[in-house]
């Protein structure tokens, strides 16, 4: 039994065959998915998908990649939306410094505001941190928020330990299946299983077996296989522990 801790199941690339994708995921052993929204405009579709499919749990947030679309009033709307809809988390939010055209100062304002909203509602955060892990850590400390996940983690071992100490889980997806991802693969070996989650980030970030294809939540078995290979622990142990970690973080029934 597996939980995909980060999948954009509401993405338009699934519109034509979402039912089939869901069934393939179930056949692969996926018993639940965490589905984070990315813009205020996308929240209604995220809600609709979670209502339509059993054990697909929504989160609502404002993703840094779309920082030019976010307006201050969206933060007020996010509070109202969370209060009404009772999601499992706030997010996807965070910082993305990889793309130089994204306004870093505006990103920090929106990320800090979502940290504060998550703290206000006692919810975990789903964080995107690309080339920005140090500033993510700084803002987590600044707000005193203490639970969440860094999805598709790509920071250092030292930063990982800081995040774990701050109450955060680290999630890994298809990137770890590539032999060239030496840093990520070493993290899988060294970090405690208690702090790890697995994800697909579908329809993006496919594993090596499905390279250049649309990713799917059912492909999470390839991520699990790489964890087994790198950690020399049983498939059953890793599947069960990452599942329980996800259940605990998101307070899933």
Fraction of residues in helix: 40-55%
As a percent range, the share of strand residues is 15-25%
CATH-defined topology = TIM Barrel
**Total count of helical runs of at least 4 residues:** 9
The quaternary structure here is: single chain
Averaging pLDDT over every residue, what do you get?
Answer: 97
CATH class: Alpha Beta
How many structurally independent domains? 1
For the largest beta-sheet, the strand count, sense and barrel status come to: 8 strands, parallel
Stretches where pLDDT falls below 50 for ≥5 residues?
none
Whole-Å distance between the termini? 15 Å
Total strand count, please? 8
Strand-and-helix sequence, N→C? EHEHEHEHEHEHEHEHH
- Strand order across the biggest sheet? 1-2-3-4-5-6-7-8
Structural class: alpha/beta
How would the global form be characterised?
A: globular
What does the radius of gyration come to?
A: 17 Å
Q: Can you say what the CATH homologous superfamily is?
A: Metal-dependent hydrolases
CATH architecture: Alpha-Beta Barrel
Description:
With 253 residues, the chain is of the alpha/beta class. The chain has one domain (2-250): TIM Barrel. Helix content is 43%, strand content 16%. The chain contains 9 helices and 8 strands. It has an 8-stranded parallel β-sheet with strand order 1-2-3-4-5-6-7-8. The longest helix has 17 residues, at 104-120. The protein is globular.
Summarize the entry for a quick read.
The chain is an alpha/beta fold. Helices cover 43% and strands 16% of the residues.
